[in-house]
Amino acid sequence: MANLHIQLHLVALFFLSSLILPSNCLPALHPKPPVALHPKSPVALIVFGDSLFDPGNNNYIKTTTTFQANFPPYGETYFKSPTGRFTNGRTIPDFVAEFAKLSLISPYLQTGHHEVLTKGVNFASGGAGALVETNKGSVISLHMQFNNFREANKQLRLKLGKRAARRVVKNAVYLISIGSNDYLNPLINNPSMFKSHAPQDFVAMVVGNITSVLKKIHREGGRKIGILTLGPLGCFPRLRLANVAAGGNGECLEQATALVKLHNPLLSQKLQLLQKQLKGFKYSYFDFFTVYTETIQNPPKYGFKEVKSACCGSGPFRGNFSCGGKRGVKKYELCHNPKDYLFFDAEHPSEAANFLSARLMWGGPSNVTGPYNIRSLFMR
């Protein structure tokens, strides 16, 4: 844990220095990754997941504004206009692509990009879960994301030939964030569900669906996986608001945290098993939970001033998912300096928080991201 403190502290110092140095020295939020080797050939970044990773796929599906972020003030800090990303700027995959010297990875459903796997494609969908039933009909589930990947792979083989396509898919790094919505959806909309479903059984079902898709990616030719644990969901502004609604003082919602503490160890166990079972399977497991817990406990140390309330939203902790005023509640508040906040809206990190996570995923120590970090996956 001491190493984690040191690494997080260094990242925070790097981030803060990037904001105060003159632009001709180091532009704000344009970090240079650690000095890296250069792979012999470009390595694609292929992304699956939920709103933490969605670059705008939900702009192109029939859904509601609950599952979209294609309106102000989303995106305005970096892109100067909304892109569909559920934050004020860049996401974790955006930073990882930058570290890997790739351009921004395009949404799969964006016109003209649905066949491109050579540099990477992002299949993520805000609101998606590992379970097909999670927000069904409004999002692109993890299983459907895999089907889209399989179709893109078919197109790649037609375009490049089987041998060249196989090389692209094998060398690619696959980045995945999934599972939060499988727990948040029932906790927020149907909390009594866990009275009739044993939490352990429900968690096993969620993790089972994740590992099933990982096996399918492997069968399709993928070998290198970067995956996030679940963060401390109970401490997200929306869940603190739920705690207040239940008569509390805005503490972290323990029921949510308890599910995360079942999910993360089981996912870790399954990944270790897959590495033994599947030929060539390598993974990077990022401890999102510990990093965010540390940051919430010591915000100034990691460059943040506010870690409980969101930058954008309404109600206590700005925990109403009302940012932008297009999700039922029209009035919302917006902070002046999103970089000071761990959360941009009720459920999603700020760009500064995404930078912190991406930086640690890229080159963090083994107790934060292991057994490989993302940089090493790009080099293998």
Helix/sheet category: alpha/beta
Order of strands, widest sheet: 2-1-3-4-5-10
Point out poorly predicted stretches.
2-32
Overall geometric form: globular
Largest sheet: 6 strands, mixed
Name the average pLDDT: 90
Q: What is the strand tally?
A: 10
**Helix content, binned percent:** 40-55%
Q: What proportion of the residues form beta strands (DSSP E)?
A: 5-15%
Helical run tally: 12
Radius of gyration, Cα only, in angstroms?
19 Å
- Kindly, what is the distance between the CA atoms of the first and last residues, rounded to a whole number of angstroms? 28 Å
Series of secondary-structure elements, N-terminal to C-terminal: HEHEHHEHHHEHHEHEEEEHEH
Furnish the topology, listing elements before pairings.
Elements (H helix, E strand, L loop, with lengths): L1 H19 L24 E5 L42 H8 L20 E3 L19 H19 L1 H10 L1 E5 L2 H10 L3 H4 L2 H22 L3 E5 L8 H9 L8 H24 L4 E5 L1 H10 L8 E5 L1 E2 L19 E2 L6 E3 L7 H13 L5 E3 L2 H6 L1
Helix pairs in contact: 1-11, 2-11, 3-4, 3-7, 7-9
